[in-house]
Known about the structure:
Elements: H1 2-87
Amino acid sequence: MKVLEENKRIIRKQDKHIVDMQQRNEISQSSIVEANLEAGKKDKEKGALHLKLKELEGKRTSLNDNIRDVESKIVSYRSIYATQSQLA
């Protein structure tokens, strides 16, 4: 009889552990889902930032080309002005 009671006590204790582990597992699964959703959001943000960076790099290249063009024109105009000043 004592052995039977001891076995019942052990089974109840194990049942409590099983329930606790199931609850922890559910919490862990929820955390994993949340982490995956957050990672997906971060990945989308990263992609958007990457596209924006490429767009800005293209604009920077265009601006640098425009600056070089203007600088070249300034050098040409200075040369023309210097030549005309010497002739006058």
